[in-house]
Write a structure and sequence with these properties.
Elements (H helix, E strand, L loop, with lengths): L2 H40 L6 H15 L1 H6 L8 H5 L2 H35 L12 H31 L8 H5 L2
Helix pairs in contact: 1-2, 1-6, 2-6, 5-6
Length: 178
């Protein structure tokens, strides 16, 4: 099985996770507007809202990372790679993909350690006393999903470099409409 088909399968699965995260972000936005209205009109904020923001924001953000990596929507600077012949251009791209892999690995490691510390210390939110570790554990698991995806993307870039395949256009959807 080719790595592109594996990446496509991961992309399909991670889109559902991102959709759930975006629904959570929408709910958080509506709640923020409600909190602002409550503060402005009634001079009474939603009690404990800051606690909820503190615990739901990390998994919401992390839920969008797997789909971004699988769709290769992370920030890239390809002017150097495009100026070079195909193999050296792909080598520059590979360097960037390895850097992203190492970064995701480091972030995942640190968040997992932080999650464990939250659990070990039985940390709770300040006002509502909600345990924080389940939300950080979920964030850790979502970040762990990023690792095989980025490994596949990196392997595919390596294969493209070995074949001497030129870098793909950044916006192929624009050419289709022309």
């Amino acid at each position: 099985m080719q790595s592109t088909s594996l990446i496509t399968r991961w992309l399909a699965r991670s889109e559902l996770i991102a959709a759930i995260g975006l629904v959570g972000l929408l709910a958080l936005s509506v709640a923020t507007i409600a909190d602002v209205v409550m503060r402005t009109v009634f001079n009474s904020p939603i009690y404990g809202f800051s606690d909820l923001i503190e615990i739901v924001t990390p998994p919401i953000v992390a839920s969008c990372l797997p789909v971004a990596l699988a769709a290769r929507q992370n920030i890239t600077i390809r002017f150097l790679g495009r100026a070079l012949p195909p193999r050296p251009g792909q080598a520059v791209e590979l360097l960037g993909q390895v850097a992203v892999l190492l970064f995701i690995l480091g972030v995942t490691w640190r968040v997992a350690v932080y999650s464990w510390e939250m659990f070990a210390n039985q940390q709770v939110t300040w006002l509502l006393g909600i345990p924080t570790w389940p939300f950080w554990l979920l964030t850790s698991l979502l970040l762990v999903l990023c690792l095989p995806i980025q490994c596949l993307v990196t392997a595919e870039t390596f294969a493209n470099m070995r074949r001497g395949q030129p870098l793909e256009d950044e916006h192929p959807e624009l050419e289709e409409g022309i």
